[in-house]
Amino acid sequence: MNKAEVLKEIIEQRKSIFPKDYAETEISQEIIEEILNSGTFAPNHKRTKPWRFKIFQSEEKAKLALEMQEIYKSTQAPQTFLEKKYQDIGFKINKADAVVSIVVNFSGMVPEWEEIAAVSMAVQNMYLTCTANGVGCYWSSPKIVDHLKESLTIEENQKCLGLFYMGNLD
Ligand SMILES: Cc1cc2nc3c(=O)[nH]c(=O)nc-3n(C[C@H](O)[C@H](O)[C@H](O)COP(=O)(O)O)c2cc1C
C-alpha cells in the first residue's frame, strides 16, 4: 500500500471503542508516547500549542476514578443519583489501561474557539495513532470533569474538555 492508501485505511478504520472492550494488557510506554506525541503535530493558530495533556496510569488513574465517582455523588441530588452510573464511572477508568485528561489552554492570542479546534485536531491525531497501533480509544466529555481538583490543576485560563480513554484490543 502506498502512503495515501495507508492513511485512507486508518482514517476509515478509526472509531470510538469503549473500555468494556479493552483487553487487560498494558499498552507499551513507547506506543503511549507515540500517541501523545502525535497530538502535538496538530495545526494551531499562532503556534499557541493550546493542548495540555496529562496521562493517568496505575495509582493515579485509580485516584482519578475515585475522585470522578465522588464528584458524581456530590453533584447529584439524592433522587437523581444512580448507583449504576456511579459504578460505571469507576469501571470505565479502571478498565482503561491509560486515561488522558484533555485540557485547553486559552492564550488570549486567538479566539477561544480556535484553541478548542486545535485541541480537537490533536485528539483526532491521537485517535488515528491509536487506530494504527491496535489501541482502542474514545473521547468522553462528562460535565463532572469541570469539578476535578485533586487529580488535575486547571488554571483560570484553561478548561477540561474531557478524558481520552485507551486500552489494547485483543
Ligand atoms: C468532542 C467530543 C466529545 C465526545 N464525548 C463523548 C461522551 O461524552 N460520551 C461518549 O460516549 N462519546 C463521546 N464522544 C465520542 C462520540 O460519541 C463518537 O465519536 C461518535 O459516536 C461517533 O463514533 P465514532 O467515533 O466511532 O465514529 C465524543 C466525541 C467528541 C468528538
TrEMBL record:
Origin superkingdom: Bacteria
SUPFAM superfamilies on file: FMN-dependent nitroreductase-like
Domain Nitroreductase: 11-167
Protein name: Nitroreductase family protein
Species of provenance: Chryseobacterium caseinilyticum
